[in-house]
């Protein structure tokens, strides 16, 4: 949860974003609902996480809430936040609610109301509009209500109201906004990346005394929690050949001295995600084979980072990293042929089978596309935040030279695209020398 001072900054940003959305839409009625609490088992829930779009526009973190915006001529004509009313008995069990009265002041929203009035306010405000903006398919109950409204309007159009002309996906506008991070978001992403990096430092320090992946994970998560963060996704703590399973998450295998440990984890701070990967030796010292593979991935990451600047495309970044990885695989004897044929035949894909990175923001795989609708590469623009994460995963298979079998290495950093180039937001030890020094520190 954001502190009071931080909350105020987030709130003023959300107010500005609602105004921006109104400008983009022109005329229409926007309906966004908070995510439902997710049941974990029987009567226990997962920790509550608001829907990213709803949070982006409200900064509000309670379930059973909704935002209604009536937009006319590019301005907000009416804005209403609906939330749970105060209830002493329920709050005694489940914690304090903000309630509509305080929400109005703290969230700087013109009107607030108890969520029990949702249906009546919805039909009230919707009657003034013929374009509806929502996230179809994310809230089945709301979808059903909107379809009823649409069919009722058509059936009763003898009076002055026109039928609903369009049910629009508001993500088209919100994704375009979320893709370019504003100042407040950049601050929070910077912090999320810093806490993520600190978690990795703690994990590296813990590895020498860890007999099992779970102990490394515990050190990582302790660092996140003590910095006021959660994890943005289930951490990957993969020792030995488990590192070759891209989304490994069992995190319960023994850590052996001869293993490399791959940790892919990110802190979530005030809703914003970090996503950092480091790979380090359990013994504190890379073997020769591990060092060879590691240095290839590191070189590929360096190349890709150099290519991060406005105007460059994802494929340009991908190509420079892939070329370095492919050349490395040839040098290791794992790919046969010239660099040209290895790239052309995609032979490297046996060892590198994912993409170079993704957008990062409120979601770890954040909104935004690598290509536009026409299939053309979208160039990077200042204000985007991306990950850069090449890797090599050498299977434990008979045709592979024994020392290389089961080595998995990925190196991932979080990067802000700036006007002149980039700013790397994450900063855990990355060269072999720095990693070994830190582990022994
Ligand atoms: Mn990632």
List the helices and strands and how they pair.
Elements: H1 4-25, E1 28-33, E2 39-41, E3 44-45, H2 52-58, E4 66-72, E5 75-83, H3 88-94, H4 99-106, E6 111-114, H5 118-126, E7 131-134, H6 140-155, E8 166-169, H7 171-179, H8 183-207, H9 213-226, E9 230-231, E10 236-239, E11 260-265, E12 267-269, E13 272-273, E14 276-281, H10 288-306, H11 314-331, H12 339-344, E15 385-388, E16 391-393, E17 408-410, E18 413-417, E19 422-424, H13 432-440
Helix pairs in contact: 1-2, 8-9, 8-13, 10-11
The structure holds manganese (II) ion (MN).
Structure description:
- The protein is 38% helix and 18% strand.
- It is of the alpha+beta class.
- The chain has two domains: 4-178, 3-Layer(aba) Sandwich (Creatine Amidinohydrolase, Chain A, domain 1), CATH 3.40.350; 180-440, Alpha-Beta Complex (Creatine Amidinohydrolase).
- The strands form six sheets. A six-stranded mixed sheet has the order 6-5-4-1-7-8, sandwiched between helices. Strands 9-12-13 form a three-stranded antiparallel sheet.
- A hairpin with a 2-residue loop joins strand 12 (267-269) and strand 13 (272-273).
- Helix 1 (4-25) crosses helix 2, helix 8 runs antiparallel to helix 9 and helix 8 (183-207) packs across helix 13 (432-440).
- The longest helix is centred in the middle third of the chain and has 25 residues, at 183-207.
- It is globular and about 80 Å long.
- The model has no long low-confidence stretch (mean pLDDT 95).
- Manganese (II) ion is lined by residues 275, 358, 387, 389, 412.
- InterPro entries: Aminopep_P_N, Creatin/AminoP/Spt16_N, Creatinase/aminopeptidase-like, Pept_M24, Peptidase_M24B_aminopep-P_CS, X-Pro_dipept-like.
- It comes from Candidatus Doriopsillibacter californiensis.
- Belongs to the peptidase M24B family.
- It is an enzyme of class 3 (hydrolase).
- Its EC number is 3.4.11.9.
């Amino acid at each position: 949860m954001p502190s009071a001072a931080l909350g105020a900054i987030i709130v003023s940003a959300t107010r500005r974003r609602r105004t921006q959305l109104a400008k983009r839409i022109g005329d229409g009625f926007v309906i966004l609902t908070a995510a439902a609490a997710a049941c974990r088992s029987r009567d226990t829930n997962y920790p509550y996480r608001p829907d990213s779009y709803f949070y982006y526009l409200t900064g509000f973190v309670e379930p059973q809430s909704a935002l209604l915006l009536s937009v006319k001529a590019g301005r907000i004509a009416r804005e209403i936040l609906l939330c749970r009313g105060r209830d002493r008995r329920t709050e005694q069990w489940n914690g304090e609610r903000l309630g509509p009265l305080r929400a109005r002041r703290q969230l700087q929203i013109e009107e607030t109301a108890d969520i029990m009035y949702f249906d009546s306010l919805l039909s009230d405000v919707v009657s003034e509009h013929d374009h509806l903006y929502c996230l179809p398919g994310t809230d089945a109950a709301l979808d059903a209500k909107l379809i009823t409204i649409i069919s009722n309007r058509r059936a009763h159009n003898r009076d002055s109201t026109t039928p609903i002309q369009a049910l629009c996906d508001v993500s088209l506008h919100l994704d375009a906004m979320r893709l370019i991070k504003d100042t407040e978001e950049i601050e929070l992403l910077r912090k999320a990346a810093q806490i993520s990096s600190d978690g990795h430092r703690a994990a590296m320090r813990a590895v020498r005394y860890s007999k099992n992946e779970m102990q490394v994970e515990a050190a990582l998560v302790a660092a996140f929690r003590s910095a006021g963060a959660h994890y943005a996704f289930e951490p990957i703590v993969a020792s030995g050949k488990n590192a070759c399973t891209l989304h490994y998450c069992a995190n319960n295998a023994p850590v052996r001295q001869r293993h490399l440990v791959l940790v892919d984890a990110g802190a979530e701070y005030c809703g914003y995600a970090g996503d950092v990967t480091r790979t380090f030796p359990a013994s504190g010292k890379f073997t020769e084979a591990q060092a060879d593979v590691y240095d290839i991935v590191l070189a590929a990451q360096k190349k890709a980072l150099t290519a991060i600047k406005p105007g460059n495309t994802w494929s340009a970044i991908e190509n420079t990293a892939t070329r370095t990885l492919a050349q490395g695989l040839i040098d290791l004897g794992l790919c046969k042929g010239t660099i040209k044929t290895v790239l052309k035949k995609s032979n490297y894909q046996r060892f590198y089978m994912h993409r170079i990175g993704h957008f990062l923001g409120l979601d770890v795989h954040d909104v935004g596309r690598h290509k536009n609708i026409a299939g053309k590469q979208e160039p990077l623009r200042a204000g985007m935040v991306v990950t850069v994460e090449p890797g090599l995963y050498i299977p434990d298979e008979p045709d592979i030279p024994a020392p290389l079998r089961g080595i998995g290495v990925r190196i991932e950093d979080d990067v802000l695209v700036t006007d002149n180039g980039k700013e790397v937001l994450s900063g855990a030890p990355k060269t072999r020398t720095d990693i070994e020094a830190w582990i022994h520190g």
